[in-house]
Design brief:
Length: 211
């Protein structure tokens, strides 16, 4: 009974967190709109793998490690902030670059999907606040003793939540209407997305420097 309650509590909390706007949403949405549906799904799969990595770390005692070595969390915040700011700067600098939709369709293949998967994974893993959320949620809901079957099932559930939500985002935003809106307003949308990514990265870096 305890394990069922923990399952429901963790699933509900992480589902709400996954649906909250942030750098992961920006990256999957932009990938789906600017490249192809397959690339958007690749990025979503990368987000799922990232969530699985955080869940595994949380099950292995991530929160205790961060509390025991606070400098590790500060380092994660600094490095993650720099990476998010770098991604935001790339988006901002490419805001005025026109997209050749014909070339984009021709280039879409296994290699681009793999790149999108790795981009989704690296974006997910670059946000240390996500790691803390996972560690805290697991610490609150997990029973004192869990079975291996429960742990495997929970890890799989986390992957389904993360990958499932971002798959929905990718499928929605890779359709014709959202793509046409993006192409018409590309400069302003990219500047807004890039600026937000830069701001989130700088916020992480500044928060690391305050400790």
């Amino acid at each position: 009974m305890q394990e069922i309650a923990a399952f429901i509590g963790i699933a509900t909390t992480l589902a709400v967190g996954a649906a909250s706007p942030g750098p992961s949403f920006i990256m999957v949405a932009r990938t789906a709109v600017t490249t192809s549906r397959a690339d958007g799904l690749g990025a979503a799969f990368g987000m799922g793998i990232g969530g699985l990595a955080f869940a595994t770390a949380a099950l292995l005692g991530l929160k205790g490690l961060l509390l025991a070595v606070p400098s590790l969390y500060l380092l994660l915040k600094a490095v993650g902030g720099l990476y998010l700011a770098y991604l935001g700067l790339r988006i901002w600098r490419g805001a005025k670059t026109a997209i050749d939709t014909a070339a984009m369709a021709a280039d879409s293949g296994t290699s681009t999907v793999r790149r999108s998967l790795l981009l989704g994974l690296s974006t997910q893993l670059s946000n240390p606040k996500t790691a803390v959320v996972y560690a805290s949620v697991f610490a609150v809901f997990l029973p004192a003793h869990t079975s291996p079957a429960f742990n495997f099932g929970l890890a799989g559930l986390v992957f389904l939540i993360e990958a499932g939500w971002y798959t929905l985002v990718a499928l929605t935003l890779s359709s014709a209407k959202p793509r046409n809106v993006y192409l018409r307003c590309k400069t302003w949308i990219d500047r807004a997305a890039g600026g937000l990514m830069i701001a989130l990265g700088l916020k992480l870096i500044s928060s690391a420097g305050q400790h």
